[in-house]
Each structure stands twice: as structure tokens, then as C-alpha cells.
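tool=predict chain=A
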Amino acid sequence: MAHNRKADRRPSYLGGKITYNQDLWTEDCIVRNATRTGAKLTVKDPNKLPDHFNLSIPSKGKTFRARIKWREANQIGVEFESGEPAPVIELATARHLRRKEKPASPDWLH
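tool=predict ok
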């Protein structure tokens, strides 16, 4: 699927939190790449998310108002409505963090 972007996105790997319905509903996500105008997020179920929501990135102390531009599988592309710059990390750091990811073990294994 081709995506029209206003700016090139840089890889990132940041934990995020999507909030909507007056912050009563939340969904964890991972910011996979970002620019000053938008981002690609990995989410559990993109179809259950509303078209507009707040995206918080706690490690950067930033919150953006976002609008979904596209949805597929477990990813969404969003455009920031605020126009603020998106936080990013270097590709080498993102790859290092990804290698450290471990799948969650069921509780009965502990």
C-alpha cells in the first residue's frame, strides 16, 4: 500500500498510549516511525480505534492530537493535528531495543 507523506519518516521505537472518549479508554501502542507531521503506530486492533485520539509518548513528555490516515493489519498511520515535531530515536538504538523485546510468557509459566 502506498502512503502519501508530507515528510520522510525516521525509524523510532517508543512506547505510546492512545487515549480517547475523554481519556476514559486507553490503548498501548509502539511508535515505529515518525516525522513532525505524523507517525506509524503498531496497535492490537486498528479497527476498534476512533478516527481521532490523543497520542501520548511518556518517555518524551509529549502528547499529540492525532487523526488516522490509514489502517492495515496491526498498524495505523496517523497525522498530527497539532503540527508539533514528533520525537524520534536513532535507527541503531531502535534496532538494539527491538532485539531486547521478549514475548510475554503466560502467567502459568512463572
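Strands lie at 10-20, 25-34, 38-42, 52-57, 62-72, 75-80. The chain has one helix and six strands.
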